[in-house]
């Protein structure tokens, strides 16, 4: 069972999310809060698998709460999935730096949201298509590095293939299907790549892949 906490200052939004997720047999909403401060408290109390976190809330913003959750060793198993109406580059960058495992806009479809909760709970990172476009457009506007990242020399050919798929935003399941390996094997490859490149998460891997022209 995937345990979820909802953090949003609008009660109507929380009610809609709760009703939507109630139809998913392997997902349970265990608590909710109206701001980041209260959200951090209920997360510490319930230790959920996923937190659906709004960003701008009076009384405690979601970015601060996200950073507090992701940097607390006692909450190591908790994954934060940002769900917001804001798609500004600064908001996206701040959420990624704060350690969010995903960034979605509130216009996402119900099926996509259910899938996103499962993907993040399984350990993958996820950006909505609109957010991915923002990130990649910004990367495309930057100058290409003069020299290849020397850390890439540490990767095997197979690991470079996996890194390129991560750069496309694929999950472990999708990587496995593309490369004819199991999702568990794909996860192992991703873990090795994270260690070799000194990256914190899949989002950083995607940035490296695009910066180096691998995606």
From TrEMBL:
Residues 148-213 form the HTH luxR-type domain. Keywords: DNA-binding, Phosphoprotein, Transcription, Transcription regulation. The modification 4-aspartylphosphate is found at residue 54. GO terms for biological process: phosphorelay signal transduction system; regulation of DNA-templated transcription. Pfam families: GerE, Response_reg. CDD domains: LuxR_C_like, REC_NarL-like. Gene3D superfamilies: 3.40.50.2300. GO terms for molecular function: DNA binding. Residues 3-121 form the Response regulatory domain. This is DNA-binding response regulator. It comes from Winogradskya consettensis.
């Amino acid at each position: 069972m995937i345990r979820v906490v909802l953090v949003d200052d609008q009660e109507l939004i929380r009610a809609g999310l709760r009703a939507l997720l109630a139809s998913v047999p392997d997902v349970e909403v265990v608590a909710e809060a109206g701001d980041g401060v209260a959200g951090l408290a209920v997360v510490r109390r319930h230790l959920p698998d996923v937190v659906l976190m709004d960003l701008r809330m009076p009384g405690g913003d979601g970015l601060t709460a996200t950073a507090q959750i992701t940097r607390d060793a006692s909450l190591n198993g908790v994954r934060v999935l940002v769900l917001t109406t804001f798609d500004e580059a600064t908001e996206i960058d701040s959420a990624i730096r704060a350690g969010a495992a995903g960034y979605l806009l509130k216009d996402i479809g119900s099926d996509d949201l259910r899938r996103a909760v499962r993907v993040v709970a399984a350990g993958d990172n996820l950006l909505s298509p609109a957010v991915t476009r923002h990130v990649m457009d910004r990367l495309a506007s930057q100058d290409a590095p003069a020299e290849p990242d020397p850390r890439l020399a540490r990767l095997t050919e197979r690991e470079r293939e996996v890194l390129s798929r991560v750069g496309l935003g694929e999950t472990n399941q999708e990587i496995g299907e593309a490369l004819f390996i199991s999702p568990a094997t794909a996860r192992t490859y991703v873990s090795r790549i994270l260690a070799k490149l000194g990256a914190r998460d899949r989002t950083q891997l995607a940035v490296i892949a695009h910066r180096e022209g691998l995606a």
